[in-house]
Design goal:
With 755 residues, the protein is an alpha/beta fold. The protein is 37% helix and 23% strand.
C-alpha cells in the first residue's frame, strides 16, 4: 500500500505539471503591456507594395508581404504594440503605376495616425514620388523605411531609410575591389538607356574605377525591355575593344540572348550579371568559355538561410508557398517568351523563386519589428510627432552599423549613419566554364568598423556524418563521428581555423569536447585528392530538441562551424546536395533529410570606459541532419500495454453491477497500472507536455470516467430511475470507444505535425 501511495504522489506531481503546461501559455513582458495598448488610440504603418501583371507567373512577393506583415502586427500587438499603441496596417498597392504610387504616398502622409511607412522599390517610380511629394515627406518627418537602392533619390531626407543595400556604399565598392583583386584590366558596361538604376550603376562604375571602362553602351528600350535589335552593334564594338569582363545590366529576360550573340561572335569575356546567373538558359551557359559572376545578398548556392529552415521545420509546406499561378495577360505568353513552369516548382517552398518571395515578405515584416523596437524607449506620454522623431533618432543611433543591430526573423539589420541604407555587403557568386551550377567565389568581402572593405575567403568544405549516437534529450546533447574535408588553396587552410560552435565545453579544461585526427594534410597523395585536407572528428554536441510530438518527433542534429579567430573570417561553401554522402548510422533514428545553412551572427561589446557599444559580425555555417525517432520500441513497451490496460478496464463495465467491488477494483487497478507504466518511462525534460504525456493523460481520463460512471450507476438516485440508468449504461459502452478513437486520430495527426 505504501508503494502504491508513492506511485500516486509521483504521478500526480508529473501529470499535474503536464496538465498545467497543457492548458497555460508562457507570456513575455515588455516596456508597454498589451493591456495598455488596448486603451490608447491605434497607430498606422502604411506598407507600399507593387503587384505585377507582366511576369509569366505570380512571383508571390505581395502575398508574402501581406502574410508576414500581418503576423508581425499580431506579435507586436501581443507585446504591447508601438509605444503602448495598437498597431494597424494599411497595405497600399500601386500596381506599378507612377501616379498611383504618388497618390498612395500622399494618402499615407495625410493620415494623422501614421507612425511609419514601409516599402516603395522601383528607382524610377521612387524618383517620381519624391519629385512630387518630397516637401511633404520631409515636413511630416514620418519614419520611412523604403526599399530604394539609389541613394541620390532620398539623400536629402533625414527621415528616409532603405532596407536595401546602397549602390554607392555596398555594390560599387565591392565591384571595384573585385575587379582590381581579380586582375581584370578591361571592364565594359552594357545597360539600358534612360533607366535610373542602369544609369546610376554605369556612372558609379566609371567613378570608382577611375573612368577606365573600355566600353559603355546604353541600349534603347522596346516594349519595356532592352531592344535586342541593338545587340549586334554593341557586340561589334566589343570585338574591337576586347573587354575581359562585361557588366551586364539589361534585365533577366535579355541576358540569355545577349550571351548567345556574344558567344556566336567568338567572344568570351567574364560576365558580371545584374540579377541571377540562372536567368541565362543552361544550354547557352554550359558551353560559354567565360566565367559568370553575380552579386547576391541572400539565397546562396547550395546554402539555406538557417533561420528560414528553423521556421520551416515541422510546418506544413503549403503554409510557406507564395508562388501564384499563370498570369495570362502577361505579354510573354503571346510573344513566346514565357515557358511552362517545370512540374513541382510551384509546390516547393525551397525553390529559388519562392525563397525570394519569403525573403522579401520577411524583410518587410522585420521593418515593422524594427519600428516597434525603436519605439520601446520612447516616453509613455509621447505624442505622434515626438514618437516619429524618436524612432528616426533610434534608427540612426541605436541601429547604426558597427554599434547595434536588430535581429529580425531571418536577417540582422543596421544602417549606415551617412547614407541611411541597410549595411548588407553582398556575396560574389561565380559559375566557371563547364561547371553547370554556380557557387560562392573564392574572394569575398566584409565591411570593417571603419567602413573599409576587407577581403575574406570562402572555405570549400564538406562534412560526411558517419554516425550519431548517445542522444540525450534531457542534456540536449548527442555524440557524432564524421569526416571533414576542406580545400587548401594556399591560404594555409586547416581545421585550426574552425571552431565547432555547438561542441560541448569541458568545464575542467574549458576546451571543446572534440577529438581530431588528421587523415590528409593537403599534400600530393596516392590515396587522397590533391590539395585536400581531411580530418576524422568525434565529439559531443548540443542540440535544441523539440519534444511536443515525442515519441513521434523529428529532430535537427547540427554541426555548427564558425571562425575561431576574428582576423581569419570566412564563409563556407559546401558541395551540391546530390554530391554529398547522406548515409548516416544513427541508433534509434531514421535520417530523413540534410542541408547546409548559414547565418550572420555577431559579438556585442560595450567599452566600459567610453560606454560605446559595438558589434563584430561573423558567418556561421550549419551542417544539419533531420532525423525521425524510431517508434517501434515505444509501441511495444508503451502503446500495446496501455491498450491492454484500457481494454481490461473497458471489459469490466460489462460485469453485473452486483459485483460492483470487482468492477471498481479492476478499474482502479487499471488506472494505477497506467500510472506505473508512465513512471517507468524515461523522464523527458520538456518545456511543455509531450505527445506521450497527452496519451497518458487521455488514458487517465478514460479510466476515471469509467470509475465515475460505475459509481453513479449504483447510486440510489440513479437506480430509482431506469431511464437514467439506461442512459448511463449506454454512455459507459459508447463514450469510451469514442474517446479512444478521438485520441487515436489526435495522436496520428500530431505525429505527422498536423495536430
Amino acid at each position: 500500500m505504501f508503494g502504491l501511495t508513492g506511485l500516486w504522489q509521483r504521478a500526480l506531481a508529473r501529470t499535474a505539471a503536464a496538465a498545467v503546461c497543457l492548458i497555460s501559455g508562457s507570456h513575455t513582458s515588455s516596456a508597454f503591456e498589451p493591456a495598455e495598448a488596448a486603451t490608447k488610440p491605434p497607430l498606422t504603418v502604411n506598407v507600399f507594395v507593387s503587384t505585377r501583371n507582366d511576369t509569366c507567373y505570380d512571383r508571390g512577393d505581395v502575398a508574402a508581404i501581406r502574410r508576414f506583415t500581418a503576423e508581425a502586427r499580431e506579435r507586436i500587438n501581443a507585446q504591447g504594440g508601438i509605444a503602448g499603441h495598437k498597431l494597424d496596417l494599411r497595405i497600399l498597392d500601386d500596381f506599378r503605376d507612377q501616379n498611383r504610387a504618388i497618390a498612395n504616398l500622399r494618402e499615407a502622409l495625410a493620415d494623422p495616425d501614421s507612425v511609419a511607412m514601409v516599402g516603395l522599390s522601383s528607382s524610377d517610380r521612387s524618383k517620381a514620388v519624391f519629385d512630387a511629394a518630397g516637401r511633404e515627406i520631409k515636413q511630416k518627418n514620418i519614419p520611412f523605411l523604403s526599399a530604394i537602392s539609389v541613394t541620390s533619390i532620398f539623400s536629402g531626407y533625414p527621415n528616409v531609410f532603405s532596407m536595401r543595400a546602397s549602390q554607392d556604399d555596398e555594390r560599387l565598392p565591392v565591384l571595384a575591389q573585385f575587379v582590381r583583386q581579380s586582375g581584370f584590366q578591361r571592364p565594359a558596361f552594357i545597360g539600358i538607356r534612360d533607366t535610373l538604376f542602369s544609369t546610376t550603376l554605369a556612372d558609379g562604375l566609371n567613378r570608382v574605377m577611375g573612368g577606365y571602362l573600355v566600353a559603355d553602351h546604353r541600349v534603347p528600350v522596346k516594349d519595356n525591355k532592352a531592344d535586342t535589335a541593338a545587340f549586334p552593334a554593341v557586340i561589334e564594338d566589343l570585338k574591337t575593344k576586347n573587354p575581359d569582363i562585361v557588366f551586364l545590366t539589361i534585365g533577366p529576360d535579355r541576358n540569355g540572348e545577349f550571351v548567345k550573340q556574344l558567344k556566336e561572335a567568338g567572344l568570351a569575356p567574364a560576365i558580371m550579371v545584374t540579377g541571377r546567373i540562372g536567368s541565362i538558359p543552361s544550354d547557352v551557359a554550359m558551353d560559354y568559355a567565360g566565367t559568370f559572376y553575380e552579386l547576391v545578398w541572400d539565397r546562396l548556392p547550395d546554402l539555406y538561410n538557417a533561420r528560414t529552415m528553423r521556421s520551416l521545420a515541422g510546418q506544413s509546406a503549403d503554409d510557406w508557398i507564395f508562388l501564384g499561378g499563370k498570369i495570362a495577360s502577361a505579354p510573354g505568353w503571346s510573344n513566346g517568351e514565357c515557358k511552362e513552369r517545370a512540374a513541382g516548382i510551384a509546390n516547393d517552398p525551397l525553390s529559388d523563386d519562392n525563397l525570394r518571395a519569403i525573403g522579401i515578405g520577411t524583410q518587410y515584416a522585420d521593418m515593422l519589428g524594427l519600428i516597434a523596437a525603436a519605439s520601446r524607449t520612447a516616453r509613455r506620454d509621447a505624442g505622434i510627432k515626438d514618437l516619429r522623431a524618436h524612432i528616426n533618432d533610434q534608427l540612426k543611433k541605436a541601429y547604426a552599423s558597427g554599434r547595434g543591430a536588430f535581429q529580425g526573423q531571418f536577417e540582422n539589420w543596421s544602417f549606415d549613419p551617412a547614407s541611411r541604407h541597410a549595411t548588407r555587403t553582398p556575396f560574389l557568386v561565380q559559375q566557371a566554364p563547364g561547371m553547370g551550377r554556380p557557387q560562392l567565389g573564392p574572394l569575398q568581402f566584409a565591411r570593417l568598423k571603419n567602413e573599409n572593405l576587407r577581403a575574406i575567403g570562402t572555405q570549400y568544405l564538406d562534412i560526411d556524418l558517419i554516425r550519431v549516437f548517445s542522444v540525450d534529450d534531457n542534456e540536449k546533447t548527442f555524440f557524432a563521428e564524421f569526416y571533414i574535408s576542406m580545400r587548401d588553396d594556399g591560404r594555409e587552410n586547416s581545421i585550426e581555423l574552425l571552431e565547432f560552435a555547438n561542441a560541448v565545453i569541458n568545464p575542467q579544461t574549458n576546451d571543446r569536447q572534440v577529438t581530431v585526427r588528421t587523415l590528409a594534410n593537403g599534400e600530393r597523395s596516392d590515396a587522397y585528392p590533391d590539395a585536400m585536407k581531411i580530418y576524422h572528428v568525434t565529439g559531443r554536441f548540443l542540440f535544441q530538441p523539440q519534444l511536443e510530438t515525442y515519441p513521434f518527433d523529428t529532430q535537427r542534429f547540427a554541426i555548427n562551424i564558425r571562425p575561431k579567430r576574428g582576423d581569419k573570417p570566412f564563409i563556407i561553401q559546401p558541395p551540391p546536395i546530390d554530391l554529398r554522402d547522406t548515409a548516416v548510422d544513427a541508433v534509434g533514428w531514421t535520417p530523413r533529410d540534410q542541408y547546409v545553412g548559414y547565418d550572420e551572427d555577431f559579438v556585442t561589446t560595450v567599452d566600459a570606459k567610453t560606454h560605446q557599444p559595438s558589434i563584430v559580425p561573423f558567418y556561421r555555417g550549419s551542417f544539419v541532419w533531420i532525423m525521425e525517432r524510431e517508434t517501434t520500441d515505444y509501441f511495444l513497451r508503451v502503446v500495446v500495454p496501455l491498450l491492454f490496460i484500457l481494454a481490461v478496464a473497458y471489459v469490466s463495465i460489462f460485469i453485473p453491477l452486483s459485483h460492483f467491488e470487482a468492477i471498481v477494483t479492476i478499474q482502479v487497478t487499471a488506472l494505477l497500472s497506467a500510472v506505473a507504466l508512465y513512471l517507468a518511462l524515461p523522464a523527458i525534460d520538456s518545456d511543455g507536455t509531450t505527445l506521450s504525456d497527452r496519451i497518458f493523460l487521455s488514458a487517465y481520463l478514460a479510466v476515471t470516467v469509467m470509475i465515475a460512471i460505475s459509481v453513479l450507476r449504483i447510486n440510489s438516485y440513479v437506480t430509482e430511475r431506469p431511464r437514467l440508468q439506461t442512459a448511463l449504461s449506454a454512455t459507459h459502452v459508447i463514450l469510451i470507444p469514442i474517446l479512444a478513437i478521438a485520441m487515436a486520430i489526435y495522436v496520428q495527426r500530431a505525429s505527422l505535425g498536423l495536430g
